[in-house]
Every structure is written in structure tokens, then in C-alpha cells.
Amino acid sequence: KQWYQRRVRGCMLVCVRNLARNHLQNQLRNHQIIKMSTSAEDILAEKMKSVSVTGADDIAAAKKPDAAKKPTSVKDFGKEGKRKGGKVSLKCPKGMRDYTPAQMAVRQVVFQKINKCFKKHGAVQIDTPVMELKDILTGKYGEDSKLIYELEDQGGEMLALRYDLTVPFARYVAMNKVSSIKRYQIARVYRRDNPAMTKGRYREFYQCDIDFAGEYESMLTDTECVKIVCDILNELEMKDFTIKVNHRKILDGIFEYCGVPIDDFRPICSAVDKLDKESWATVKKEMVETKGLDEGVADKIGELVQKKGGFELIKELEESGLGSNKTAAAGLADMRLLLEYCELFGCLDHVSFDLSLARGLDYYTGAIFEAVLAPDAKGESVGSVAGGGRYDNLVGMFAAKGRSIPCVGVSLGIERLFTIMEKRMEKSRVSSIQVLVASGQKGLLKERMKLLNLLWDSDINSEMLYKANPKLLNQSNMPRRK
After folding, report:
1. Measured between alpha carbons, how far is 85 from 160 in angstroms, rounded to an integer?
2. What are phi and psi of 462, to 5 degrees?
3. What residues have CB less than 8 Å from 19, skipping those under 6 apart?
4. What is the pLDDT of residues 435-450, one digit of tens each?
5. Does the pLDDT of residue 289 top 80, yes or no?
6. How far apart (Å, rounded) are the C-alpha atoms in residues 302 and 297?
7. Best exposed site among 1, 61, 279, 330 by fewest CB in 10 Å?
8. Which residues touch 212 (CB under 8 Å, ≥6 apart)?
């Protein structure tokens, strides 16, 4: 009898081994591996050592090789954040970050104030996908197109993460045949840039956009964009700021007046746009050595684009040789009107007509603006916190038969504002709880739960300590910890 049982057990073991071997070979064949590798044989041999033939569950388990053991505690990881013997790293991707409850409390306050301002100006909210077709985004951002996050083929569609909210809005207007809208959108965008997180420059960040689409009187909506930026920065107590304004027609007129070939307008415009970060000598070197511009032409440009002022500068340019250029004259007339309207809206004190402002994106066609904060006590600045302008031809790139809808808008780079506010704000209360249900005696858990439910039904933010008999001291300290 014992001999017979051993023979049966041996036969069953052979069957299990064959089943496991066949199962593993099928798996490897599905991955286009014809012959079992040495590592696969080792896995099978190790599996056979642990096979039990006491029942059907053991046979089923023998068919499935064990998955690699996942770490279950911090002890499984080394100092570098990598799993011991593995490649898992405990860190956020480059240029991205987590947010603590205290940081989220600050962000919610800022978002509420921006939402309130947008609604005060009569804007309606929309949303668009975080991904767009690659062809929608490419060719709209000039030299910055290399910063677009492109994705692999997704079921026959070449996709990319949105670089900003303006191009998706233009696609939305064209696709839905919108003729007039004042919209706002607050959403994440993605740029494959070199991050500087201490200055609020990330690869994933929020933008807060408001845009006007439709036919309106000249410079009215452009001026309202400037007013909106001014209102939001004042509401956030960013008192020391300047909103630079310029016009693409003035820049094109300068390039034409100075003798820049028309095909080089956009590359030279991108070089001028760097004057807020680099010296004129560096920008001139790029124009001459990299862009191939004549040095004499570059010197003429330098004499003009380094000027800034207000009404007096407009008058000076109109009376100079530049005023005889039709393109520049049209831009100067628009700029005079913009400054007049800013004075009526009470925001002219924060506005500066700055000829170095170029806004490197290719889709701008008219007035452009950019808000910058003054350097702090250490002389450090986060750079631009808002920017925008007029883009009358962008919708026509997507619309049928080139149907064009004039548009103008502005975008706030909110992450840089968060960086400043987080530094200057004291530790604040992050919880929204209004009532803590507590008890001074034992055995009152159910009574506390009943009272808590009544408060919730009355829309009162409430909570309790999740213990049957909490100590009174712990209950009294709970609000302080929040």
C-alpha cells in the first residue's frame, strides 16, 4: 500500500511539473521567445521545489510563477530612495512636486481670489483635455516648440501634453464655431524646460487664463486684460509690480526700418525677447553670430529696443524716422489708445511701454503685455508672473476655410506667485473644521456619533477623535494641531 501511494505521488508530481513547464513555455512564446532561457529554467526548478500535490489549489498555484516581492516598508529602501536590489526611486519627477496641506490651503485661497476676479469681469469657465493632437500644438510656439512633451502613438493618434491653454482654446473656438466668448480656464500645463523650483519654474504647473474671442472696438479688450492682471496682483498684495506693454506691429516696424530681412523677423524677435534676462551685448552677439544679422543693423535695433516710458516715448517715436513706417505708426496709435484706456481704468501707474518686450510665441499679432515683480531685498526676482497679448490669426489656422476670429488674452503663471506667498505667509490653519465633538466622560461614543451626524446634516464642518474613550487633554489639543 505504501509503495502504491509513493508511485501515485510520483506520477502526480510529474504531471504538475509538465503543466507548469507548458504554462511557462506558453508565456515565453507569447513574448516571442522560442527557447526557454537559463533564467526561466531556474524559475521553474525553484518552483518545483515548493510544489505540493495535496489538492487542486496547489496545482493551480504551481502554474503561476511568483511575482517579484514588492517592498512593504521604508527599511526595504536605501538612502538614495532606491529599493535594495531594485530600481524604484522615492522622488517626484524632475520639475514636479507634492503639496502639503498648508501649501494647499494657500493655493485654495489664491484660486478663489482669481476665480472671483474672472467672474467679476463676466467670464465663463470651460475646460479642455490635458492632451491634444500633436499637429494642433506644433508650429505655434516658435523656438519654444522643442519644450512640448510629445507622446508615443496612442492607437493611431500622435498626441502631446498641452504647452499652454491658448492654443487649445483656439482649437475649441474653431471646432465649436464660436463667434464670441469671454472665457477663463484654470488648469495644469506641461513644459520640458530646465526647472528652477526655488523660483517657481516647474515642468508641471497651473496657468490661469482669461481670453476674449470676437469682434470688439479697438484696444478695449486688450486694456481689460491689463486691468484684470492689475486687479489680481493687487488682491494678492503683490504691490510692487510693473505691467510691460508693447505691440508686435511696432517691433515689426522697427525691424523693417532697421533693415532686417522679413524672413528673419521672428528669429530676431525671439532674440529681443531675452533682454529681460541678458545684456544687450549678449543679445547682439546672438543676432550677429547665430542669426547672421549684419552688425550695423543690430546696432540700430539696439538703439530702439532698449527704450521704455509712456506717452512721451510714443510722441518721440512718432516724430522720429520710425514714425514714417506705416506698420510702426499703426502700432504706436494702438499703444497710445491702450495707455489712455489704462488711465481711465485706474491702472496706468503700473503700466510701462517697454520696447524690449517681444513675447517669443509666434501667434501674437498685436498688443502684448507681461507682468513682472520687483526684485526682493536680496535682489532676486521670480521673473514674469503673467503674460499675454492679441492673436487674431490663431483660430483661422484651425477653422474651416480660414474663418478668422480675433482674440486677445492673458495668462497668470500662478506657481511663481505661490512661491512668493509661501515664503511670506506665517503658518496658517489648514483644516476647515468648525466644531469638534468631544466628551469628558467614558462610554459616550454613540452619543458623539449622533451629534456629529446632526452637525453634518446641517452642513457644519465637524469631526471627533476616533477613539471610544479619548482623553480630554487629547481632545482639547486636537484643534491646535490643525
Report:
1. 34
2. -145, 160
3. 59, 62, 63
4. 989 988 888 999 989 9
5. yes
6. 9
7. 1
8. 181, 182, 221, 224, 225, 407, 408, 409
What is the DSSP code (8-state) at residue 145? G
Residue 427 CB neighbour total at 10 angstroms = 6
Q: What CA–CA distance (Å, rounded) separates 193 from 119?
A: 32
Q: Which residue has the cell 480630554?
A: 472
For residue 381, the one-letter residue type is S
3-state DSSP assignment of residue 191: coil
What would the pLDDT profile of 325-351 be if each residue is shown by its tens digit? 999 999 999 999 999 999 999 999 999
User: Cα(456)–Cα(231) distance, rounded to whole angstroms?
Assistant: 37
User: Angle at Cα 192 formed by Cα 148 and Cα 166, nearest 5°?
Assistant: 45
First to last CA, the chain: 73
Q: Which residues pair with 245 in a beta bridge?
A: 353, 369
Radius of gyration (C-alpha) of the chain in whole angstroms: 32
DSSP 163: S
Distance of CA 480 to the CA centre of its chain: 34
Three-state secondary structure call for residue 187: strand
Backbone angles phi, psi at 189, to 5 degrees: -130, 165
The cell for 90 is 522615492
- Give me the phi and psi of 159, to 5 degrees please: -115, 165
CB atoms within 10 A of CB 309: 14
Q: Alpha carbon of 154 to those of 131, 435, 444: distances in Å?
A: 11, 50, 57
